[in-house]
Design brief:
single chain, mainly alpha, two-stranded antiparallel ribbon, disordered C terminus
């Protein structure tokens, strides 16, 4: 591991970043290729599955829809009492049943439910066809009984009649009320109770003495016995309604069985779809795991690259730039702890900074030493009581103490004499006092006086 780390440190920043980008590009390309391959295979498989199951599912849905239409249209026969309308609706229901039978494709499992459905529809039609005539007769009887009941009530309330006659009229009113209750009964038990009450009250009013009461009683008896009789007619009406309700119950029950058969077919198709979905899910799960692994690898590469750029490159550059600014401002004590040991550009930059800082420190120490030596020399040079001058090789004065011009009788700070020693001597009073002496002798004398 240490060898690998040392080997990795030998690479530069550009090579590292380029390698990271190349790895990320390769991973993304691999993810794209795998995704396209898996999606193409899944699409082909789903097309085959769709072609194999679409026909069966469509047939099951048609069967369920036709059966639902049959169960929905059958109860509307209750509201139809006109024979021609009832026959038309029965024909429509039978046509619906034929479509259901055709949708079943002669499946043996549906032979018995469809036969029962046909029988129940025929029973429903047979029970409802006579209802129109029964309903008309019952309405006529009801109207006649209402008229007789109103007459009996009016006579029973006539205060001009004797009390006994009014009581007889009240009994006739109760008799018509019982007959009306029978005509409007909704249950067979209720109809039987009205029938017993009517017979009992009729026995009590068998032969009323007044002519008008006897005539009213005869009219009531005639109305009740019209045709097959009120009670027989009402009994047939209620029985037919019960038969129709029973037929409707059988229709709903058999329709439920047909729908259950259709649901079974759909469930079988769904089971095949589920198995195909499971196989497809396995393939997609494998592809998803591969995607996740490759994406995770790409994420690791991206995070590592960003961490490398942030921590190794940007952070170290910021540290070096800050240290260089402090070093340029004169802070030679600046230091960079935890310097990277890699041999890339960042490591070389840290090494170069260390060399530059050490050179700056050496230069500063050398400058301080020279400054100290100059200060010592200047102090000694200025404290010499004789006049001292330092000449360069070309004869120019590069340094002199304060006593030089005073000994040469030259005013301090004067520009006379120039920047050469011979010029200073010639400008001094010693040179003028010597007169005809040679310049060389005068200069030597002045120099001896100065030294």
């Amino acid at each position: 591991m240490s060898r690998l780390r040392d080997w990795f440190r030998d690479f530069g920043v550009r090579i590292r970043l380029s390698a990271a980008l190349a790895v990320m590009f390769g991973l993304m390309l691999l993810v794209s290729v795998i995704g396209l391959r898996v999606l193409d295979r899944t699409e082909v498989w789903m097309n085959v599955l769709h072609r194999d199951t679409l026909t069966e599912v469509a047939a099951a849905m048609d069967l369920s829809r036709d059966a639902s239409d049959l169960a929905t249209s059958a109860p509307f026969l209750f509201a139809l009492f006109a024979p021609y309308q009832l026959e038309q609706e029965v024909a429509k229901v039978m046509a619906n049943l034929d479509r259901v039978q055709h949708s079943s494709e002669s499946d043996p499992a549906l032979d018995l439910p469809l036969s029962r459905l046909r029988s129940a529809i025929e029973d429903l039609a047979q029970a409802l066809l006579p209802q129109s005539a029964r309903q008309a007769e019952l309405k006529a009887i009801d109207r006649a009984l209402v008229r007789l009941n109103a007459r009996s009530r009016r006579m029973a309330r006539d205060t001009a009649l004797p009390l006994e006659a009014r009581q007889d009229w009240s009994a006739l009113q109760q008799l018509t009320a019982v007959a009306l209750g029978a005509a409007r009964a909704e249950e067979l038990i209720e109809l039987g109770e009205f029938s017993r009450d009517f017979q009992r009250q009729s026995q009590a009013l068998r032969s009323p003495e007044p002519e008008d009461q006897r005539r009213t009683f005869d009219e009531i008896s005639e109305v009740v016995q019209r045709g097959t009789g009120l009670f027989v007619l009402k009994h047939g009406h209620l029985s037919a309604r019960l038969d129709a309700e029973s037929a409707l119950f059988r229709i709903r029950q058999e329709t439920h069985r047909v729908n259950a058969f259709a649901e079974t077919k759909v469930a079988q198709a769904e089971d095949r779809l589920s198995r195909a979905r499971a196989a497809t899910s396995d393939t997609l799960a494998y592809a998803r795991n591969a995607f996740l692994a490759l994406i995770l690898a790409s994420l690791v590469v991206a995070v590592t690259s960003s961490f490398y750029v942030s921590r190794h490159v940007a952070r170290n550059l910021e540290r070096i730039s800050g240290a260089m600014r402090r070093l340029a401002s004169g802070n030679l004590r600046v230091d960079l702890p935890d310097a990277p040991t890699s041999r890339d550009e960042i490591g070389q930059l840290f090494t170069a900074f260390g060399v530059f800082r050490d050179n700056a420190r050496k230069l500063d120490r050398r400058t301080a030493q020279i400054r100290h030596q100059n200060a010592l020399f200047s102090r000694v040079f200025q404290n010499i009581k004789d006049g001292v001058a330092v000449e360069a090789e070309d004869g120019r004065i590069i340094a002199e103490n304060e006593n030089l011009r005073r000994l040469l009788r030259l005013p301090p700070g004067s520009d006379r004499g120039g920047d050469r020693m011979s010029d200073l001597v010639q400008a001094s009073p010693f040179s003028r006092a010597a007169g005809g002496r040679s310049a060389a002798a005068s200069r030597n004398t002045a120099m001896r006086m100065a030294t």
